[in-house]
Amino acid sequence: MKLIRLWFGLAIAISSSVLASTSATDDGLVRVKSTHDVSMTADKLAGLLESKGMTIFTRVKHSDSAKKVGVELRPTELIIFGNPKVGSPLMACSQSVAIDLPQKALIMEDDQGEVWLVYNSPSYLAARHHIEGCDKVLSKVEGALANFAKGATQ
After folding, report:
1. Inter-CA distances, 8 with 50, 53, 71, 100, 135, Å
2. How many domains does the chain contain in total?
3. What CATH code is carried by the domain that includes residue 43?
4. Domain range holding 53?
5. pTM score > 0.70 for this model?
6. Structural contact between residues 122 and 149, judged by C-beta atoms closer than 8 angstroms
7. Mean pLDDT split into 10-residue runs, the chain, 154 residues
């Protein structure tokens, strides 16, 4: 298990150094800086996901909902998406990972006006749910999420 976590941690660190606009932190989140506003980043991500056969379950525009109750919130949108071809094998490895599936991508503007696409690191999910023996599935998820994030933010 430690070797799996170390391998995924190393993969994220390498990815982070290659993409200067990407950061992975101890909180299990991968953050990718976008060159677009929140709406455009979310639209690009949704288009990419759909083009790859992913199901978009919902788009939650948190800032719009906050406005309805008198709360000012910087642009913030959550896209919940998945594909049973990928999620089901992961759940077969550790059924508790279902609490974190389908996948989520948060697109938000920070207090500096920068836009970020944020998602859960697969290595974080592997550690959280004690997933062992599913390196191929985890690697596939990690690569797909990184590609979706890059495509939506560039």
Report:
1. 27, 25, 39, 18, 9
2. 1
3. 3.30.310.70
4. 2-153
5. yes
6. no
7. 42 40 73 98 98 97 96 97 93 96 98 98 96 93 96 98
